[in-house]
Task: inverse folding
C-alpha cells in the first residue's frame, strides 16, 4: 500500500539542533522586544498617569506585556522556523512519527500554568491595592482608599447625557465636571433609565451606571489636565454622542469653580430631589412610563 | 457517474450564475439606497431680513405628528423659507450666526425626570421669552402645565425647557402640523451657532415616548421625531 | 435570497441510488413552508391584536409586541407544518403510526429545499445557508466601516447605524455557532465514526430549517425600525426598544432551539453510533470538537432561551423582570445572557480547533502530537467556559469580591487553549508540511488566534479591564478569536472538503489569491483596532474623536479589501461549483481519515456495511500503520486506504 510513500529516517541529534536554533533566536528577539516594550512604549501606555488608578493600570499593562510578548515571540519563532525548515518537498516524504513527548508536554503544562497563576495573583494584588483599580465596585465597595476625606461626586447618567451632583456643595447638579488635584475622589455612579457606563479614560475609572443601583469607584488625582468622559455601554441612539470633557485643576481653582456653580445653580437646586444614591424614575414624575398615574411610585405625574 | 435531475449546458449554468450575482448586487443596492440611506427632509434656516448674521427658525412640537408610520408619536415640524412645514429634526444653519428660534409647543407637560433641565442655558442673554415674559427657569411643577419637552443641543450647551399646554384645555391639537388657533405655548430664544463646521446632535430630555419603557423609546430614538441634528455649515 | 438558491445549481447530483416514484401525500418543500408560514404569521398577528390591542402601551406607542411575537410563533409553526417537519411527531402523538421507511428523496436541486433525513443533504443545506448568513452579516460590517470613515459625517443616521451594528453582531454570533457543526459536523461525523446514519435525523433536519426562519425574522427587524441594543440586548434598553427587538429575541430563540436539536443529535450520534473499534482514543478531532461543543450547547443554550423568554414577557406582558423599580433587575439579564454568552464564544472557538487539529496532521504528514492533551484542551475549555461569565461584568457594579475568582477562572482558560498550541507546535515539529490552500488557512488560524488569546489575558486582568472593557480593544480581541480563528477554520474546511462533498477540487491558484488577500486584510483590519481601543474608542459609536480618524480610515479601507477578498471567494467558489467544475481525484490530500475512504459521491447510507476500525486516523509517518478501517469498498470511486492514485 505504501509504494508511493516515502518514509525518511530522522535523527534525534538533528532535532536537538533545531531546538537550540529556535530557543536562541527566540531569546535574542524576546529580550530586545521586552526592553522596547518596557522602556520605549511603557511610559506611553494607556491610560496615562493622571491618577493613582491610571498609574496602576499602566503598570499592569506593562507587566502583562513583558510577559505576553515573549510568549507571542516564542510561538512566532517556532512557526516561522517550522515553515522554513519543516516543509515537504517534491519527494512527498512523510513526517517524523512521534505522537508525544512527556518532557516537552510536562514543561509546557508547568510553564503555562505558572504564568497564568502568577498573572491571576498579580492582577488580584493590583486590584486590591489602588482601591479597586478604578473599577465600579457596586453599592458597598470592599476595596477603599485609606482616608475618609473623600470628594463625593455623583455621576447621573441619563439618555443621553451625564450630569454630576455634588453633595458637599449644597447638592447642586452640573453638566460639567472639574476635579481638584491630590484628592481622593469617590464617584457614585447611577442611572435614571437604561444601563450606561461612566468611563473617565485618563482617570482610569470605569463604572456601569445602573438604574436603581449605586456603583462606587475611587480615584486619586495626581496630575492636572483634561480628561474625557465617555459612555461605554450601549444606551440607544445617542450613545456615540454621550461624552464630555472634564479637568483636573488646582484645589483653589476647583473651590472657586464649585462655589460659583453653587451660587449660579441655587434656583434650580431647589427643584432637585433630595440627594440620594439612587433615584427611581417614576418618583420623579417621568412622563411616558409603562405605569398609570395610580401607580404607588408615580404619584407626582 | 449517474446524473440525476436536470442537466444544463455549461453556458446555461454560467448564465444562471451571472444572473444570480446581478440579482444579489441589485438586492444589496436596493437595501442601501431604498432603506439604509433614507432620512427625513433637511430644512435650512431662513436668513433674517432685519438683522445681519442672523437666521430665523420656526418649529413646532406636536403631541402626535399625525402622519407617517407612527402617527401617534410626538415630533417636531420645522418651517422652511416658503412657510411649508416639514416633519423633521434635521436643520441646517450657517457658522458664526445667531439662530433665532421660535418654538410653538402643542403638547401637554409634566414634571421633569431630572429637574436640572428646567434651567435655561446656552442662549443669548441667558433667558428665553415664554409667552411674552423672560425666564431663566421654567417651573416644571406648575400645576396643569409643567414642561412638555426640552430643546437641548449638548454640543453647544443649549438647554431650553418648553412649557406645556395646560392639560385641561379644549382645543388640543390632535394632528400635525398644528396651527396657531389651537392651544399652544410660544418660546423664543437665540443661540450662537459657534465657529466650527459640525453636526451637533440635539434631543429632548423629557421621556415623551408614550408606551415605551421609561419613555425614551420610539420617537425619542428616531430622527425626524425627537432626535435630530443641527448641521452647522459654511 | 436569489444568490442563495442559484448557488446549488449543478451541485445537486448527490448519490441517491434509489429511484422510484413519489409516494402519496403532497410534495412539501421550502416554498409550501413559506406559504403556510405567511398564513401563520397573519393569524398570529391578528390574534395578538385581538388580545393586546387595547393595552395601554400599545395604544400609546402604536406598536403591538404581542401581535408581532404571536405572528412569529405561528409563522414558524406554519413554516414547519408547510415543510412537513411536524408530520411525524403529530402522527405519533395522535396515535397514527407513521411510515417507518424514509421519505422519498427528491432528485436534483429540489432535495436541498426539502425536509430530508439524509445527513449529507442537511450538511450541504447548512453549508449554503451558513455562507448566505455569513455574507449578509459581512455586508453589514462593510456598512459599519463605511460610517466610521469619518468621525463626524453620517452616511447612515445614528439609529440606522446602531441597527446595522446590532444586525451584524446578532447575525454573526447566533448563526455562526452552527457554521462548523451544521455543514461539517452533520455531513462528516457519521462518516468519521463509521455510522450509516445519525441518531436523530429528524432533529438534525429540523435544526437546519430553524435557521432560514431565524434569518428572515432577524433581517425583518430592519424593516420594523431595527433594534439598537446590539447583540447583547442589555435590559432595560432592550425592553425600551420598538418591535424590531422582538425580531431579535425571537430569531435568537429559534437559533437556540436549532442549536439544542443539533447538539442532541450530535452527542447521541457520537456516543452511540461509533463503529466497532472506534474507541474514544481513536475518535477524530473534529468529532471531539463536535461533542464538546454539543455538550456546551446543551448546558448553556437553555439559559439563553429562558432569558429571551423573560425578555419577551417583559416586552409584551410587562412582567418587569429585567428592570428595576418593580421587583426586577437589569443585572438579571446580564447574568442570564452571559451565562450563555461566554460558553457561546467557545461554541464558536471549539469547532475551529476541531477543524484545525483534524486537518493539520494530514498536511504535516505526522500524527497529531499529544492527542490526549488536545482532547483535554477541548474538554477543559468547555468546562471552564461555564465559570467565567462575570468577567464581562467586571465594571458592572455587582459583587466586587467575586472579581479575583473570575479573573482566575478566566486566566485558567489560557491553559487548555495553550494545549492546542502545544499540539499544533508538536505536530509541526519535524513534519513535512505541504502548503496547500487548506493548510495555509490552518496556519493562519494559529497565527490569528495567538493575538486573540494573548489579548484575552489583558481583558481578563481587572485593572487593565477598567481601560479596555467595552472598547475597540475587546472588539478586536473577539474578532481575532472568532473571525480569525473560526472563519479561517471554516475556509480551511471548505477548501479541504469540497472534493468529498462535490467531487470538485477548488483551484489552488485562486485559493491562494483568496488566502493571502484575506489573511493580510484581516490582520490589517483588526490589529489597529487594538490600538483604537487602547486610545479610548468605545464600541458601537457612530462618532469618535477626530484624532482617531486616520487609524479608522486605515481600518475601513482594510475592511473593504477583506470584503473584496471574501467576495472573490464567493464568486470563484460558486463559479467552480456550478460552472467550471474542476474534477477532483478521490482523496486528493492523501488523508487517512475514514470519511475519505468511501469515495465520491458518498453513497446513500454512507457505508454498505459497518466498518471495523483498526487504527487511529492520524498515523502518518508510520510505515507499519494499519489502515484506518476495514471496509468493503462501495461506490465506483472508493479510494484505497492510503489514499491514492496520484
Result:
Amino acid at each position: 500500500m505504501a509504494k508511493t510513500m516515502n518514509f525518511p529516517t530522522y535523527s534525534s541529534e538533528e532535532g536537538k539542533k533545531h531546538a537550540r536554533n529556535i530557543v536562541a533566536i527566540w531569546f535574542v528577539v524576546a529580550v530586545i522586544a521586552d526592553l522596547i516594550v518596557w522602556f520605549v512604549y511603557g511610559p506611553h501606555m494607556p491610560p496615562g498617569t493622571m491618577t493613582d488608578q491610571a498609574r496602576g493600570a499602566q503598570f499592569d499593562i506593562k507587566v502583562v506585556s513583558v510577559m505576553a510578548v515573549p510568549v507571542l515571540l516564542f510561538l512566532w519563532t517556532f512557526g516561522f522556523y517550522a515553515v522554513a525548515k519543516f516543509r515537504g518537498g517534491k519527494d512527498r516524504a512523510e513526517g517524523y512519527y512521534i505522537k508525544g513527548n512527556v518532557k516537552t508536554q510536562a514543561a509546557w503544562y508547568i510553564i503555562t500554568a505558572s504564568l497564568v497563576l502568577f498573572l491571576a495573583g498579580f492582577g488580584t494584588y493590583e486590584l486590591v491595592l489602588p482601591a479597586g483599580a478604578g473599577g465600579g465596585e457596586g453599592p458597598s465597595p470592599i476595596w477603599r482608599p485609606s482616608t475618609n476625606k473623600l470628594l463625593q461626586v455623583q455621576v447621573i447618567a441619563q439618555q443621553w447625557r451625564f450630569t454630576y451632583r455634588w453633595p458637599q456643595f449644597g447638592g447642586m447638579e452640573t453638566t460639567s465636571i472639574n476635579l481638584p488635584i491630590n484628592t481622593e475622589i469617590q464617584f457614585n455612579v447611577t442611572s435614571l433609565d437604561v444601563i450606561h457606563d461612566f468611563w473617565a479614560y485618563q482617570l482610569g475609572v470605569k463604572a456601569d451606571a445602573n438604574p436603581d443601583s449605586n456603583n462606587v469607584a475611587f480615584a486619586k488625582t495626581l496630575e492636572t489636565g483634561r480628561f474625557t468622559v465617555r459612555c461605554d455601554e450601549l444606551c440607544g441612539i445617542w450613545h456615540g454622542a454621550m461624552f464630555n470633557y472634564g479637568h483636573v485643576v488646582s484645589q483653589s481653582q476647583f473651590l472657586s469653580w464649585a462655589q460659583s456653580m453653587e451660587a449660579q445653580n441655587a434656583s434650580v437646586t431647589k427643584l432637585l430631589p433630595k440627594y440620594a444614591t439612587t433615584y427611581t424614575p417614576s418618583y420623579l414624575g417621568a412622563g411616558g412610563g409603562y405605569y398609570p398615574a395610580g401607580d404607588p411610585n408615580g404619584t407626582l405625574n | 457517474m449517474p446524473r440525476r435531475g436536470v442537466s444544463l449546458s455549461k453556458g446555461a449554468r454560467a448564465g444562471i450564475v451571472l444572473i444570480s450575482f446581478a440579482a444579489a448586487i441589485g438586492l444589496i443596492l436596493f437595501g442601501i439606497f431604498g432603506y439604509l440611506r433614507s432620512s427625513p427632509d433637511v430644512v435650512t434656516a431662513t436668513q433674517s431680513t432685519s438683522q445681519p448674521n442672523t437666521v430665523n427658525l420656526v418649529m413646532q412640537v406636536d403631541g402626535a405628528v399625525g402622519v407617517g408610520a407612527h402617527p401617534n408619536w410626538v415630533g417636531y415640524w420645522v418651517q422652511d423659507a416658503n412657510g411649508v412645514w416639514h416633519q423633521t429634526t434635521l436643520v441646517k444653519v450657517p457658522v458664526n450666526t445667531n439662530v433665532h428660534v421660535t418654538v410653538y409647543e402643542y403638547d401637554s407637560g409634566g414634571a421633569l425626570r431630572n429637574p436640572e433641565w428646567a434651567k435655561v442655558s446656552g442662549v443669548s442673554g441667558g433667558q428665553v421669552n415664554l409667552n411674552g415674559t423672560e425666564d431663566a427657569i421654567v417651573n416644571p411643577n406648575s400645576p396643569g402645565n409643567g414642561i412638555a419637552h426640552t430643546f437641548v443641543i449638548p454640543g453647544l450647551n443649549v438647554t431650553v425647557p418648553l412649557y406645556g399646554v395646560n392639560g385641561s384645555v379644549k382645543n388640543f391639537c390632535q394632528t400635525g402640523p398644528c396651527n396657531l388657533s389651537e392651544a399652544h405655548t410660544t418660546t423664543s430664544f437665540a443661540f450662537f451657532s459657534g465657529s466650527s463646521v459640525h453636526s451637533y446632535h440635539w434631543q429632548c430630555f423629557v421621556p415623551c415616548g408614550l408606551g415605551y419603557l421609561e419613555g425614551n423609546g420610539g420617537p425619542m430614538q428616531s430622527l425626524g421625531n425627537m432626535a435630530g441634528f443641527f448641521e452647522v455649515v459654511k | 435570497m436569489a444568490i442563495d438558491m442559484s448557488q446549488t445549481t449543478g451541485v445537486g447530483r448527490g448519490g441517491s441510488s434509489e429511484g422510484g416514484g413519489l409516494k402519496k401525500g403532497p410534495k412539501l418543500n421550502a416554498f409550501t413552508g413559506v406559504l403556510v408560514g405567511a398564513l401563520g404569521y397573519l393569524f398570529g398577528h391578528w390574534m395578538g391584536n385581538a388580545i393586546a390591542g387595547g393595552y395601554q402601551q400599545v395604544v400609546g406607542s402604536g406598536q403591538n409586541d404581542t401581535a408581532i411575537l404571536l405572528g412569529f410563533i405561528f409563522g414558524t409553526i406554519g413554516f414547519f407544518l408547510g415543510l412537513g417537519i411536524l408530520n411525524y411527531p403529530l402522527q405519533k402523538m395522535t396515535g397514527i403510526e407513521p411510515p417507518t421507511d424514509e421519505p422519498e428523496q427528491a432528485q436534483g436541486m429540489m432535495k436541498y429545499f426539502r425536509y430530508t433525513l439524509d445527513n449529507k443533504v442537511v450538511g450541504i443545506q447548512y453549508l449554503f445557508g451558513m455562507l448566505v448568513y455569513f455574507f449578509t452579516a459581512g455586508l453589514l460590517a462593510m456598512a459599519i466601516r463605511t460610517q466610521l470613515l469619518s468621525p463626524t459625517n453620517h452616511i447612515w443616521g445614528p439609529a440606522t447605524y446602531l441597527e446595522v451594528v446590532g444586525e451584524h453582531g446578532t447575525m454573526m454570533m447566533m448563526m455562526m455557532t452552527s457554521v462548523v457543526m451544521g455543514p461539517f459536523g452533520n455531513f462528516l461525523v457519521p462518516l468519521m465514526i463509521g455510522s450509516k446514519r445519525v441518531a436523530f435525523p429528524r432533529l438534525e433536519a429540523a435544526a437546519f430549517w430553524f435557521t432560514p426562519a431565524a434569518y428572515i425574522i432577524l433581517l425583518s427587524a430592519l424593516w420594523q425600525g431595527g433594534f439598537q441594543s446590539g447583540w447583547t440586548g442589555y435590559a432595560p434598553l432592550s425592553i425600551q426598544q420598538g418591535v424590531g427587538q422582538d425580531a431579535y429575541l425571537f430569531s435568537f430563540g429559534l437559533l437556540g432551539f436549532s442549536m439544542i436539536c443539533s447538539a442532541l443529535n450530535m452527542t447521541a450520534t457520537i456516543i452511540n453510533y461509533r463503529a466497532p473499534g472506534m474507541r474514544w482514543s481513536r475518535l477524530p478531532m473534529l468529532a471531539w470538537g463536535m461533542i464538546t461543543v454539543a455538550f456546551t450547547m446543551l448546558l448553556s443554550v437553555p439559559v439563553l432561551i429562558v432569558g429571551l423568554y423573560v425578555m419577551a414577557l417583559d416586552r409584551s406582558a410587562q412582567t418587569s423582570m429585567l428592570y428595576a423599580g418593580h421587583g426586577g433587575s437589569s443585572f438579571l439579564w446580564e447574568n442570564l445572557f452571559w451565562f450563555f454568552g461566554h460558553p457561546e464564544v467557545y461554541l464558536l472557538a471549539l469547532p475551529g480547533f476541531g477543524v484545525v487539529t483534524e486537518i493539520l496532521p494530514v498536511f504535516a504528514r505526522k500524527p497529531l502530537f499529544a492527542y490526549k492533551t488536545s482532547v483535554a484542551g477541548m474538554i477543559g475549555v468547555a468546562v471552564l467556559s461555564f465559570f467565567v461569565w462575570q468577567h464581562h461584568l467586571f465594571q458592572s457594579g455587582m459583587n466586587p469580591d467575586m472579581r479575583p475568582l473570575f479573573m482566575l477562572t478566566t486566566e485558567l482558560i489560557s491553559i487548555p487553549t495553550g494545549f492546542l498550541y502545544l499540539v499544533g507546535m508538536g505536530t509541526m515539529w519535524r513534519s513535512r508540511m505541504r502548503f496547500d490552500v487548506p493548510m495555509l488557512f490552518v496556519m493562519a488560524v494559529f497565527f490569528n488566534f495567538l493575538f486573540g488569546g494573548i489579548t484575552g489575558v489583558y481583558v481578563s486582568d481587572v485593572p487593565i479591564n477598567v481601560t479596555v472593557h467595552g472598547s475597540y480593544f475587546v472588539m478586536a480581541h473577539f474578532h481575532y478569536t472568532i473571525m480569525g480563528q473560526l472563519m479561517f477554520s471554516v475556509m480551511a474546511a471548505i477548501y479541504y472538503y469540497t472534493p468529498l462533498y462535490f467531487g470538485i477540487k477548488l483551484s489552488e491558484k485562486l485559493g491562494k489569491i483568496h488566502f493571502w488577500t484575506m489573511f493580510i486584510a484581516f490582520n490589517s483590519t483588526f490589529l489597529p483596532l487594538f490600538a483604537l481601543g487602547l486610545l479610548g474608542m468605545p464600541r458601537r459609536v457612530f462618532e469618535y474623536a477626530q484624532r482617531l480618524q486616520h487609524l479608522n480610515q486605515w481600518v475601513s479601507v482594510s475592511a473593504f479589501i477583506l470584503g473584496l477578498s471574501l467576495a472573490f471567494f464567493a464568486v470563484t467558489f460558486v463559479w467552480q461549483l456550478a460552472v467550471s467544475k474542476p474534477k477532483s481525484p478521490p482523496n486528493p490530500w492523501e488523508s487517512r481519515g475514514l470519511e475519505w475512504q468511501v469515495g465520491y459521491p458518498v453513497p446513500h447510507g454512507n457505508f454498505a456495511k459497518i466498518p471495523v476500525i483498526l487504527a487511529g486516523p492520524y498515523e502518518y509517518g508510520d510505515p507499519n500503520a494499519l489502515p484506518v478501517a476495514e471496509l468493503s469498498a462501495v461506490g465506483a470511486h472508493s479510494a484505497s486506504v492510503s489514499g491514492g492514485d496520484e
